[in-house]
Amino acid sequence: MTDSTPDDLTVDAAAPEPDVATPRSVPADALLAGLVGAFPATAVDERADEDVAHVAATDYAGFVAAARDAGYDVFVDLCGVDYLRRTPRFEVVVNLLSYGRRRRLRIRTGVAGEDPRLPSIVDVFPGANYYERETYDLFGIEFTGHPDLTRILLPDDWEGHPLRKDYSVGSVPVQFKGAHKAS
């Protein structure tokens, strides 16, 4: 088994974007239509079990705050995704719930690969603190304005971000003690 390095990778600009339906420009839901009206670069895909908002990076923090004010007041999680062969390379996904409306809202925001950064939403949802730190630690996406953006899972002297798809896999030799064949 060989290690994968960035030199081994080829970029396919025509690679399909995974798990993305064609978003509607004007949602049927009045609340979502109001959010899209306030953030015109946003497109929403309404699904039976959840709504998916594709939000521009410049509107990210404002859209999250507006969604909270509109009733999506439960922060579920935040994670990063690396689409190595796509532009923008990274994506930050935030999941919110509205108990009153019995709806889930998934917010997807593309983040550039050269300088991956987004504003922090810790002031909107304090529970996002550790999720943003984990995304920073494993993907290298910086959240500007975060109160303590430091590594949370890996040692401080760790080099790189292991969930990036161009991160070298590496290996650790394993020696089996007492592995003898019985005769």
Characterise this structure.
The model is unreliable at about 1-15 (pLDDT under 50). The strands form two sheets. Strands 1-2-5-4-3 form a five-stranded mixed sheet. A hairpin with a 4-residue loop joins β1 (about 45) and β2. The chain has about 180 residues and is α/β, with parallel strands linked by helices. About 15% of the residues lie in helices and about 25% in strands.
Could you provide a short overview of the structure?
This protein is of the alpha/beta class.
Residue share in helix: 10-25%
Q: Spell out the helices and strands N to C.
A: HEEHEEEEHE
Largest sheet: 5 strands, mixed
Overall geometry comes to elongated
- State the strand order across the main sheet: 1-2-5-4-3
> With helices defined by DSSP (H or I, 4 residues minimum), what is the helix count?
3
Overall mean pLDDT stands at 86
Beta strands, count: 7
Structural class assignment: alpha/beta
**Rg computed from alpha carbons, rounded to a whole number of angstroms:** 20 Å
Strand content: 15-25%
Topology, please?
Blueprint: H1 30-38, E1 43-46, E2 51-55, H2 60-69, E3 74-82, E4 90-98, E5 103-111, E6 117-119, H3 128-139, E7 142-144
Parallel strand pairs: 2-5, 6-7
Antiparallel strand pairs: 1-2, 3-4, 4-5
